[in-house]
Amino acid sequence: MLPTFELLKPQTLDEALGMLSQRTDSLPLAGGTNLIVDMRSGKLAPKKLVDLGGLQELCCIREKDGHLLIGAGVTIAELLDDPMIERHAPILRQMARSFANTLIRNRATVGGNLVNAAPCSDTAPALLVLDAEVELASKDEARRVPLDEFLVGAFETRRQPNELLTSVRVPIPPAGARMTFEKMGLRKISCMAKVDVAVRLDVDEGGTVTNARIAVGAASAVALRVSSAEEALIGQSLVAVVPAPQGLTGEQRFGMAIEEAVRLVGETVEPRAGSEYKRQVVRGMTRRLLSSLSKEGA
Q1: Residue 188: half-sphere exposure toward Cβ, Cα within 13 Å
Q2: Strands of 26-29's sheet, edge to edge?
Q3: Can you give the pLDDT at residue 297?
Q4: To the nearest whole percent, how much of the chain has pLDDT over 90?
């Protein structure tokens, strides 16, 4: 049973920020797919909820100054059909397809999923490989925080009680960006991730990896990027040319780089006691995703 609470219905974003600044016992309510569950279980018992559902300022996806701006109130379902997401960030569509089920995708929001900061968050790894920042606003100021700094730990972020996460900023990737996402769960739908892996490779016209991103969710207390594994891939060529004097093709050398990245990812994740098997799962998923990206366009 839900505890008793007062529902506040702001008409504008400024009004919502004013409500949060005046009431330390308030929580923002977006889709409610996590918050309402926590209230029913007794984990949370806020006296007031500030309903963000009708705020159009939070519900759009647009391009601006070389960035894709995703409003915090955009639902996971909306990521599936938006042409800008398809063009610039197809990994978010991949992620959204595996997110829970249709009913929850229609309610759950991008901002709510990030603020909840569950270790098994599906949005976080996909957005981490896109170098996303979050925009936070209070009544008095606004600020931007890189997503990998915003996520502090399990169910912990840098959002202050008087702040709202208003949007996610994604730099539009270069033309040679290749990206993919995979989720491992106990079922194909309606399940929490046991492991999420997101991978991105930026490849120049000559077939050389100029930038790499690898992010893992549900295998540590917080979704994280593995920078050491990324560095093992940068500068590697995907072209099957035999360089002297090693006598190895670009494909063979990249295969060796993949194995080094796989090793480093397995060493970096920190699954909780009893879930050590996730190291092996993460290694296998990372190897598979990197191999598939290396063959794109071949």
Answers
A1: 0
A2: 6-8, 48-51, 26-29
A3: 64
A4: 86
* Rounded Cα–Cα distance for residues 16 and 54 (Å): 11
Q: What is the pLDDT of residues 191-212, one digit of tens each?
A: 676 899 999 999 999 999 999 9
- Residue type present at position 252: Q
Report how far apart, in Å, the C-alpha atoms of 1 and of each of 9, 44, 45, 48, 145 are. Answer: 22, 12, 11, 16, 36
β partners of residue 177: 202
Q: Is 51 exposed, middle or buried (0-12, 13-18, 19+ CB in 10 A)?
A: middle
Residues in the chain: 298
- pTM equals 0.94
Residues 6+ apart with CB under 8 A from 280: 266
| Gap between the Cα atoms of 217 and 19, Å rounded | 33
| CA 93 centroid distance within chain | 12
Residue type, position 78, single letter: E
pLDDT in tens, 18-35: 999 987 789 999 999 999
**How many CB atoms are closer than 10 A to CB 222?**
19
